[in-house]
Automatic annotation (TrEMBL):
Fe cation binds at residues 358, 361, 372, 375. It comes from Arenimonas caeni. It is found in: Cell inner membrane. One of its GO terms (molecular function) is iron ion binding. It holds the Pfam family Zn_ribbon_LapB. This is Lipopolysaccharide assembly protein B.
Amino acid sequence: MTELAWLFLLLPVAAGAGWLAGRRGGERRGGARVSRLSNTYFRGLNYLLNEQQDKAIEVFLQIAAVDKDTVETQFALGHLFRRRGEVDRAIRLHQDLVARPGLSDEQKTRAVLALGEDYMRAGLFDRAETLFTDLVRMGVLAPQALRHLISIYQAERDWAKAIEHAHKLESAGGESMARLVAQFHCELAEMARLGGDDEGARRHVADAYAADSHSVRAGLVEARLELSAGNDAAAIRAFERVARHDIEFLPEILDPLLACYERRGESARARGFLLEMTEHYPGVSPVLALTRMIEREEGRQAALAFLSGQLRQRPSVRGEAAYIDLSLRDGDSDPAKALKTLKQITEQLVVRTPGYRCQRCGFGARAHHWQCPGCKSWGSIKPVHGTVSE
């Protein structure tokens, strides 16, 4: 929700507060008070319509100060302060609400939750963790508090606690956390693998599969473990499973998978897999790999015929560059030089294009990230078809 929308939400609250304040003061005195509050209200509205939001906030603060019972106004202001980056003001406001006598249990709980969110925004994770843990222990607002705790443990890379609280959230809210838990186990598996603890890595991979049997990342970690152990047959199975679970990750596994096929002399299996992928994958990566195989086994003309036919169906900058390269393999005439120049330009266009993009926020990247640097979602960054990443 935008700041402007939040301010508009404050207007009826403030107006209602002014009316109630007037009723409490007696008819004559109340009328004057309502008049003053109405003038203040319309002054704030004028600031708002003229996009003078700082002045508008000050006016609504004055309205809230007239009647201390306007708790909803306080909550809305606190949220707005936090969104604007004025975390200190939000913290003070919510601390006052927590300490205020006479609030209902529900209002007190909301104030504690809001204060924890302020602490998170300020980077005071230890304080926020304490408040959210207390809310979970009391059994109030547990799903919201658990989500915040999971965010804190992700920021601190405490994957064990993140897993523990993801399971608690699943139990509390009925929402499946399987994919998230699988990502956390994969983080632990990667840490173990890089630390030389292959057995620990395998255990975490198994846990990731137990959480999400179609986990692409678990398949990639498993394949790398098998490669390091020299087990090409198992690596092939893991790589093929990754491609069939999520074909968008084909470019990530294609080169090491083809190397495994080659070491085992399984050319027919490799060709069958590539043909299967060309039927389902919209990018050009399997086409180019199959073109290279055809050139080795049947010659350059057969490879050119196959590639040109494929490019008519799925035009691609990388495919065009490969076709030019294959066409010029034995030529050195003037037309060949022109084609080489065209090839260089095409390659530059490919290099300048982001190879990966987040499916949620559109963040573009040259390298793959499991967690999007933009929106922080997991597993949402995937290769862009027709680019250098393929």
